[in-house]
TrEMBL record:
This is UDP-N-acetylglucosamine 1-carboxyvinyltransferase. GO terms for cellular component: cytoplasm. Phosphoenolpyruvate binds at K22, N23. UDP-N-acetyl-alpha-D-glucosamine binds at R92, R121, P122, I123, D124, Q125, D307, I329.
Length: 428
């Protein structure tokens, strides 16, 4: 386990370039095993999730290389093999191998991606989709076994009971090579779903309607990559830097963004009084002096992303009054609250709401990044605080923030990642 140390209080300035979207990448890599050719991605973020997914690929004899943001994956010699449970459990998105293995081999066995880091994360809608496509699913001792009869998977109508990014993508992965037409209704509309569909369609798939709530898939027998797929920019990483820039910046340009993907977020910053200058693919955040409190309710896309409520929180400390956040997607996503309080923040959870009061004098402290976005909020708070902040479990931050120390250092922050030697010596 690693620790992040932040020497707080430095004003930030300069430019930061956003990497490829984590939540696309972690689905694109499992999707790559559906191809009958090698596959190449660029704008791949250098994050722990990618390295763990590469380990999972290796266990199936799928060779991959990753250098300078380019990831190549060769699934042509793939074999069925038990997947390494430590890597599987390290990231939720390993559940996309259920859909892609089903598409490739008509069966899949996977240990349940463990952990409960942002509240309960059921996969009943994924299972419902697999069953509708003709699979049988059993679960025993934390292992999910999905099988099909001799006819394999067939096209079907799938109505998702709730809007789920994971279930929508898993249903696409399983259906893309199934015989016949599949229609997913009440599908999630997140930009990452469009990115997966674009990748598959460029290999010959017929996925129509991604980005709307009805997705139609005509199964095809083979998928062949003809070109490099460029991953869309990470709207959550972008939102994190926008929040940080408004909180501590003396003028920061956030580059490589698709502003349309960030509208629900930038609308809230503007409502707070941050005079953003939004261009075609970058956003300038000037130094901000006064901020108005706001109310935020997280919703499926195009609503305000649950993944951005925690990164936004430290900025709310600077507003002149109480702000309120309601996370309707993951109401238990509150791991940051107790940690921020240790730094002197006025924040509490009350009747399903997060109430954030002005907190002018944050003080560096010893805190824990219980999950990725809680970690992001602690990083921003640490930058705002006087003194040093030590964030334990920084691996959770590195799961999803591309080269974060280099990017923060280039913005004039004083941060470092160190090995937690006591943990290395066996404390954990
Ligand atoms: C790797 C990835 O892309 N992760 C994202 C994905 O997670 P994840 O795919 O886990 O989230 P979903 O969109 O599936 O879940 C949305 C809501 O539906 C519920 N649900 C979901 C599936 C299911 O079978 N049953 C069920 O009840 C969940 O508990 C949650 O309340 O979308 C979340 C919501 O935008 C983001 O926070 C995560 O960053
Ligand atoms: C919760 C998140 O990711 P994951 O679904 O991979 O845990 C996130 O990206 O905020």
């Amino acid at each position: 386990m690693k620790k992040m140390i932040i020497h707080g209080g430095q004003r930030l300035t300069g430019e930061v370039t956003i990497g490829g979207a984590k939540n696309s990448t972690v689905a694109l890599i499992p999707a790559a095993i559906l191809a009958d050719t090698p596959v190449r991605f660029d704008m791949v973020p250098d994050i722990l999730d990618v390295h763990n997914l590469m380990l999972i690929l290796k266990s199936m004899n799928v060779h991959s290389t990753f250098e300078d943001g380019v990831l190549t994956i060769d699934p042509t010699e793939i074999v069925e093999a038990p997947l390494p449970s430590k890597a599987i459990k390290s990231l939720r998105a390993s559940y996309y191998f259920m859909g892609s293995l089903l598409g490739r081999f008509q069966r899949a066995t996977l240990s349940f991606p463990g952990g409960d880091n942002i509240g309960p994360r059921p996969i009943d809608q994924h299972i419902k989709a697999f069953k509708a496509l003709g699979a049988s699913v059993t679960e025993h001792d934390g292992t999910v076994k999905i099988t099909t009869g001799p006819e394999g998977l067939h096209g079907t109508r799938i109505f998702l009971d709730m809007v789920s990014v994971g279930a929508t993508i898993n249903a696409i992965l399983a259906a893309v090579k199934a015989v016949g037409t599949t229609v997913i209704e009440n599908a999630a509309k997140e930009p990452e779903i469009i990115d997966i569909a674009t990748f598959l369609n460029n290999m010959g798939a017929h996925v129509r309607g991604a980005g709307t709530d009805v997705i139609r898939i005509e199964g095809v027998p083979t998928l062949r990559a003809m070109n490099t797929h460029t991953i869309i920019p990470d709207r959550i990483e972008a939102g994190t830097y926008l929040s940080m820039a408004a909180a501590m910046g003396d003028g920061i340009v956030v580059k490589n963004v698709i502003p349309e993907h960030l509208e629900s977020f930038t609308a809230k910053l503007i409502e707070m009084g941050v005079p953003l200058e939004i261009s075609e693919d970058s956003i300038y955040v000037p130094r901000v002096t006064e901020l108005t409190p706001i109310q935020v309710k997280t919703m499926p896309f195009p609503g305000f992303a649950t993944d951005l409520q925690q990164p936004l929180t430290p900025l709310l400390f600077r507003a002149a009054g109480s702000s309120v956040i309601i996370d309707t997607i993951y109401p238990k996503r509150i791991k940051h609250i107790a940690e921020l309080r240790k730094m002197g923040a006025n924040i509490r959870s009350e009747d399903g709401m997060i109430v954030v009061d002005p907190s002018d004098d944050l003080i560096g402290g010893h805190v824990q990044a219980g999950e990725i976005r809680a970690g992001a909020s602690l990083v921003i708070a640490g930058l705002m605080a006087t003194g040093d902040t030590e964030i334990d479990q920084a691996d959770n931050i590195l799961r999803g923030y591309d080269r974060i120390v280099a990017k923060l250092t280039a913005l004039n922050a004083n941060v470092e990642i160190v090995e937690d030697s006591l943990v290395e010596n066996g404390r954990d």
